[in-house]
Specification:
Oligomer: single chain
Strand content: 15-25%
Keywords: ATP-binding, Kinase, Magnesium, Metal-binding, Nucleotide-binding, Thiamine biosynthesis, Transferase
Function: Catalyzes the phosphorylation of the hydroxyl group of 4-methyl-5-beta-hydroxyethylthiazole (THZ).
CATH topology of the largest domain: UDP-N-acetylmuramoyl-L-alanine:D-glutamate ligase
Largest sheet: 9 strands, mixed
Protein name: Multifunctional fusion protein
Enzyme class: transferase
Number of strands: 19
CATH architecture of the largest domain: 3-Layer(aba) Sandwich
Family: Belongs to the Thz kinase family. Belongs to the thiamine-phosphate synthase family.
CATH superfamily of the largest domain: Ribokinase
Bound molecules: the ligand Cc1ncc(COP(=O)(O)OP(=O)(O)O)c(N)n1, 4-methyl-5-hydroxyethylthiazole phosphate, magnesium ion
Strand order of the largest sheet: 2-1-3-4-5-8-9-10-11
Length: about 500
């Protein structure tokens, strides 16, 4: 990724409608990273400026009735001009007036990115549920309302103690409002409802410097709005936001280290200065080498789950190059999960396997697709894979769950009997099969057919199931009708003449 370099080339104009406490810090932070900040406080002025802007930040931190009306006009204008909008619903958990303003902007306008702490985001999700249930009871036709529990978080004013699973909260919010959401706290979460990543970079000093949360809204606006970034082949809204969010947290780490080196301690005053310096100094390389991401699981990721290793390309001149090329094409075409299954005749071993696995992991990270390791728990730990897949003859699931409390764990299941004998509650998903005959696994059990998938679904209506074994685009509809959330595939993709076409075929279901 070269998002920071592109941002600096373009120097994007970010218009900030932000609160009185943080205007100066926001302007300095944006300048330091290479963006061009402008503050504005009336619609007449905004009509002149916004056509030249690459993004608009609306931060409701010191809102009053006049400003509330101004923010509404501003977002309407930005929507007309197709300028991306970042909304920071500061302290909306603390009062109904703020919450209603934020809710109105989210429900009745187009917000590109919502950024808040856990308390703020939870309050908005709760308010949206209440709004939906009010609309449902008012509507004569609507009979079926499902209410969800919102993650419990403590909140006081603009501070928030955080939430155990910021990724899950971001995902809930992204689904409720159909908006890309960033939840910040000790661990940050980002979700568009389909992909969710938690970022564990950062510094404990950040909450002690006022404005670090507010500056992030403007900072992310610079990343998502810049036309220069949007021209990059790697650009998409999710990945640009994730890169910006990580860059920000990495800058905080760098600032804390500088304070340690200079003063042998980290204190708020010196941290604030060193944080601005770090934003000015940092590069894409710093983000690449320090990023600490964790993909969280949701059942939609089972949709098109590609599995392979170099042994699946043994007919080619260079199986490693062919595998990497195929994996990248499959990622580009939209696979939703990837498993490295390097095993069997012709597979890589030792250092060659580690080096190949690292390259594959990097590709998966570029496309924010979970990287799952088959069988090899030590390598999963060494590379910090997003998850592992184990079968009935691999390490016992209770030991694997103990070792990896936060990783995605998949478990192979062949029949309802095997389901009953397994601790499936420790798994995030189960891989059920083989559905049909397969050439890709020498010791595969007998095929169970789509009915075998249905048999397991009948004993557990909820568990995420991915089907496996001899699956093609043509058989996918039937398999999904029999209860699978998705399909996992080796040969239909590795042997495809047109990988993108086949992956897109699988994605239609
Ligand atoms: C998604 C998925 N389902 C099943 C398997 C098979 O795992 P296992 O039974 O351990 O066999 P090997 O793949 O290790 O040979 C899988 N890998 N992925
Ligand atoms: C790993 C595995 N487990 C059961 S079948 C199978 C192989 C699936 O490969 P293919 O999609 O080529 O049949
Ligand atoms: Mg196995």
């Amino acid at each position: 990724m070269t998002y920071i370099a592109a941002l600096r080339r373009k120097n994007p104009l970010v218009i900030c409608l932000t609160n009185d406490v943080v205007k100066n810090f926001t302007a300095n932070g944006l300048l330091a990273i290479g963006a061009s900040p402008a503050m504005s406080s009336c619609i007449e002025d905004l009509r002149d400026l916004l056509p030249y802007a690459q993004a608009l930040l609306v931060n409701i931190g010191t809102v009053n009735p006049e400003l509330g009306a101004f923010y509404k006009q501003a977002v309407t204008l930005a929507n007309e001009l197709a300028v991306p909008v970042v909304l920071d619903p500061v302290a909306c958990s603390a009062g109904a007036f703020r919450r209603e303003i934020a809710l109105d902007l989210l429900v009745n306008h187009k917000i590109t990115l919502l950024r808040g702490n856990a308390g703020e985001i939870a309050a908005l999700v709760q308010a949206k549920h209440e709004l939906d249930s009010k609309n449902a009871t008012e509507s004569i036709t609507s009979v079926n309302h499902k209410s969800e529990k919102v993650a419990e978080v403590s909140s006081k004013g603009v501070d928030s103690a955080g939430v155990a699973k910021p990724g899950a909260l971001a995902e809930q919010c992204a689904k409720a409002f159909q908006v890309l959401t960033v939840v910040t706290g000790p661990v940050d979460g980002i979700s568009n409802g389909l992909k969710t990543v938690e970022v564990t970079n950062g510094s404990a000093m950040m909450p002690l410097v006022v404005g670090t949360g507010c500056l992030l809204g403007g900072f992310l606006a610079a990343f998502i709005g810049s036309k220069e970034l949007q021209r990059l082949e790697e650009y998409d809204l999710f990945s640009a936001t994730l890169w910006g969010l990580t860059a920000y947290s990495v800058a905080a780490e760098m600032a804390a280290e500088t304070c340690e080196n200079l003063y042998q301690r980290v204190e708020p005053g010196s941290f604030q200065i060193e944080f601005l310096n770090a934003l000015y100094r940092m590069s894409d390389e710093d983000v690449k080498t320090r990023k600490n991401w964790h993909m969280t699981f949701n059942r939609e990721q089972l949709g098109v789950y590609f599995i392979c290793g170099t042994q699946d390309f043994k007919e080619t001149d260079n199986s490693e190059t062919a595998a990497l090329r195929c994996i990248e094409m499959a990622l580009q075409a939209g696979i939703t999960m990837f498993q490295l299954r390097e095993k069997g005749v012709g597979s890589l071993k030792g250092a060659a396997k580690v080096s190949f696995a690292k390259k594959v992991q990097e590709l998966c990270e570029t496309y924010q697709v979970p990287f799952i390791m088959n069988d090899d728990m030590d390598l999963a730990e060494e590379l910090d894979a997003d998850g592992v897949h184990i079968g009935q003859d691999d390490d016992p699931i209770e030991l694997v769950r103990q070792r990896f409390p936060n990783k995605i764990i998949g478990l192979s299941i062949h029949s309802p009997e095997e389901y009953a004998d397994s601790q499936v509650e420790l798994a995030d998903y189960i891989g059920v099969g083989p559905v049909y005959g397969t050439q890709s696994k020498g010791d595969a059990k007998a095929p169970i057919g789509p009915e075998g998938i249905q048999a397991v679904r009948n004993v557990d209506a909820e568990i995420p199931i991915v089907a496996i074994g001899g699956i093609t685009v043509e058989t996918t509809a039937t398999i999904r009708e029999h209860g699978a959330d998705g399909v996992s595939i080796i040969s239909a993709i590795t042997k495809a003449n047109d990988v993108a076409k086949v992956v897109k075929g699988f994605k239609k279901f």
